[in-house]
């Protein structure tokens, strides 16, 4: 029995654009986030091939390279979601390379929505795949559907050193200074776990506190 040749599946794009994205990631990121970002790309690209999706490997790679840069101080804003900070950094990067606006927008959406449950899978392939690659690497969604041998090769090349605990620490540190930005996202629960006394707003309270009075009963409707 011959072992499948996965060498192609371990290759990251080597265009000038992709190389520069790698350099930015290498320079500003941590080892943990660097390996995570490359694994996310390799997982996502293979998922795209398995699903026979037509996607731009270069755009998917840039999206993966930048998707967590918003956690890093240099790219972090005081009051935007960290996902938006990463998306804005990618937009700035791509705009210096004369990339078409619709492609820039695709990368922006992929990064901005990569932690949002339920929506990316209905969007363009690069948006859907970045999200599915993140879900596989961070919480193991699709673990059993992914070729085990390739998964092991990817992890051997880009190891998960102290990943579970280390990722949570680096992840939380990226938005600990602005917990209000996590409202309505999975990250609100991260803040609640690590910030003593922090409670994310509840939609029920916000609706009850709305400045609108309820209307009196005699509503006008046309028969």
UniProtKB/TrEMBL annotation:
Domain of life: Bacteria
Database matches in Gene3D superfamilies: Hypothetical protein af1432
Coiled-coil blocks: none
Domain annotation HD: ranges: 34-123
CDD domains to which the protein is assigned, alphabetical: HDc
Record Pfam families: HD
Family matches, as InterPro entries: HD/PDEase_dom, HD_domain
PANTHER family: CYANAMIDE HYDRATASE DDI2-RELATED
UniProt-recorded name of the protein: HD domain-containing protein
Native organism: Bradyrhizobium frederickii
């Amino acid at each position: 029995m011959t072992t499948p040749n996965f060498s192609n599946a371990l290759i990251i794009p080597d265009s000038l654009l992709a190389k520069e994205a790698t350099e930015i990631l290498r320079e500003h990121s941590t080892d943990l986030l660097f390996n995570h970002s490359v694994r996310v790309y390799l997982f996502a690209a293979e998922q795209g091939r398995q699903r026979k999706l037509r996607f731009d490997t270069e755009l998917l790679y840039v999206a993966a390279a930048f998707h967590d840069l918003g956690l890093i101080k240099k790219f972090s804003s005081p009051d935007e979601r960290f996902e938006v900070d990463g998306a804005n950094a990618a937009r700035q990067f791509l705009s210096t390379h004369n990339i078409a606006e619709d492609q820039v927008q695709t990368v922006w959406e992929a990064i901005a929505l990569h932690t949002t449950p339920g929506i990316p899978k209905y969007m363009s392939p690069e948006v859907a795949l970045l999200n599915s690659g993140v879900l596989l690497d961070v919480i193991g969604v699709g673990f059993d559907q992914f070729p085990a041998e390739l998964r092991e090769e990817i992890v051997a090349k880009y190891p998960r050193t102290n990943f579970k605990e280390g990722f949570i620490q680096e992840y939380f540190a990226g938005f600990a200074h602005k917990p209000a930005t996590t409202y309505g996202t999975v990250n609100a629960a991260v803040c609640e776990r690590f910030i003593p006394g922090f409670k994310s707003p509840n939609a029920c309270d916000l609706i009850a506190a709305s400045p609108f009075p309820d209307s009196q009963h005699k509503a006008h409707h046309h028969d």
